[in-house]
């Protein structure tokens, strides 16, 4: 599986390692990821081993392999093994944190969040507020009114629009203000450098199945030892839970880790592929720096070319601090409203449909691709992902495809 450095070549040659359908252009790696065949084969081998000897594998072999994955991830992120566990996805990690916090009874506790928070995490915060009997509220600013900001949720890289946030600076502010920091790093690991020992957040969760190349679904959940007493239960509560009546407050790191070891008969084999994914990126791709440099430059150059074809612009800033990642947002040349009744598309003989659904369904049907289309601040945008199996020609193609779709949308409405 190893290649010499001068043999490495990112772009279409890398497609051989993935399982895309002939002619399908995967320009949306960011949503659900894609895993190299050899890593998925490893997962399938482990599933076959489990089927061959179910009880020995689940009770004894799985925990050993899970410890191997935790060790590989702790080395990758530069933190102790005692602080690393795995959950299915970033949303599960956010739920785990928010549902474990004990809120004060005076009704002044607050969850701070940005307006670009991921939709499912925003819904989670709403649910927690409701389930607490309004002991906690969601806000974007706080203390001037005498309230108590308890925890702040923010992304490494927001989903829509795709923007790299100043998460290190936000973490430092939270620390100074004695507010817990919960980093939704769904688009973090494998895309940007995450030195957790230096960053030192209170909680962080990051999907491995997006940019690290593990099969779905797998996310690393980091909780420093100082906060592990807060995480009393996983979702769902399983055999690792120790009730306070049994004389434990989940103080020991081993208690925290064992809480996440076995979560019923869910398929958690993807957790066990982390060592293979990290090794594949090193041996086949040449390491994290090479992957990151290629994908960031590809998304930056490719996004600019798409904007030129469309006659629009890329969402970013002069310093490129917002775009220092592997995804890019391009403005679409659409004047269609983004909300209200007029935002719907009405064509003869068909029910009304949103711009998002019309664009995405049409590109799937006509062009064998998928590019997320979404509204933001009154305009329509598209998000593209740079990845090692793509080239600038794919972005060129995407630009002309989007131009065709925008012109077709205008014709159909008229």
UniProtKB/TrEMBL annotation:
Pfam families: Aminotran_5 (PF00266). Gene3D superfamilies: Type I PLP-dependent aspartate aminotransferase-like (Major domain). Coiled coil: none annotated. Keywords: Pyridoxal phosphate. It comes from Penicillium arizonense. PANTHER family: HERCYNYLCYSTEINE SULFOXIDE LYASE (PTHR43092:SF2), L-CYSTEINE DESULFHYDRASE (PTHR43092). Residues 62-329 form the Aminotransferase class V domain. This is Aminotransferase class V domain-containing protein.
């Amino acid at each position: 599986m190893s290649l010499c450095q001068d043999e490495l070549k990112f772009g279409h040659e890398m497609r051989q390692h993935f399982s895309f359908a002939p002619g399908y252009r995967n320009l949306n790696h960011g949503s659900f990821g894609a895993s190299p065949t050899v890593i998925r084969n490893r997962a399938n081998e482990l599933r076959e081993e489990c089927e061959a000897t179910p009880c020995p594998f689940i009770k004894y072999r799985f925990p050993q392999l899970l410890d191997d994955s935790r060790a590989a991830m702790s080395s990758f992120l530069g933190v102790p093994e005692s602080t690393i566990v795995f959950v299915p996805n970033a949303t599960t990690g956010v739920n785990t944190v928010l549902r474990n916090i004990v809120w004060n009874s005076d009704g002044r506790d607050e969850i701070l969040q940005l307006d670009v928070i991921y939709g499912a995490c925003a819904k989670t915060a709403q649910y927690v507020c409701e389930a607490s009997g309004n002991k906690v509220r969601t806000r974007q600013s706080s203390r001037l009114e005498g309230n108590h900001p308890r925890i702040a949720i923010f992304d490494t890289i927001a989903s829509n629009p795709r923007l790299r946030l100043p998460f290190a600076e936000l973490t430092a502010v939270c620390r100074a203000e004695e507010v817990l920091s919960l980093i939704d790093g769904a688009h973090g690991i494998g895309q940007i450098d995450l030195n957790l020992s230096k960053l030192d957040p209170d909680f962080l969760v990051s999907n491995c199945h997006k940019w690290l190349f593990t099969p779905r679904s797998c996310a690393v959940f980091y909780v420093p030892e100082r906060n592990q007493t807060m995480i009393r239960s996983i979702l769902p509560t399983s055999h690792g839970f120790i009730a306070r009546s049994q004389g434990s407050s989940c103080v020991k790191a081993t208690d925290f880790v064992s809480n996440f070891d076995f979560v019923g008969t869910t398929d958690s084999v993807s957790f066990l592929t982390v060592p293979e994914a990290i090794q594949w990126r090193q041996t086949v791709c040449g390491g994290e720096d090479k992957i990151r440099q290629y994908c960031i430059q590809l998304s930056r150059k490719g996004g600019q070319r798409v904007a030129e074809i469309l006659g629009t612009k890329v969402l970013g800033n002069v310093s490129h601090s917002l775009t220092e990642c592997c995804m890019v947002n391009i403005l679409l040349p659409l004047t269609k409203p983004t909300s209200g009744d007029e935002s719907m598309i009405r064509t003869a003989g068909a029910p009304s449909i949103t711009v998002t659904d019309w664009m995405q369904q049409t590109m799937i049907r006509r062009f064998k691709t998928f590019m997320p289309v979404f509204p933001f601040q009154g305009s329509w945008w598209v998000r593209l992902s740079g990845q090692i199996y793509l080239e600038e020609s794919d972005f060129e193609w995407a630009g002309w495809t989007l131009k065709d779709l925008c012109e077709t949308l205008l014709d159909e409405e008229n």
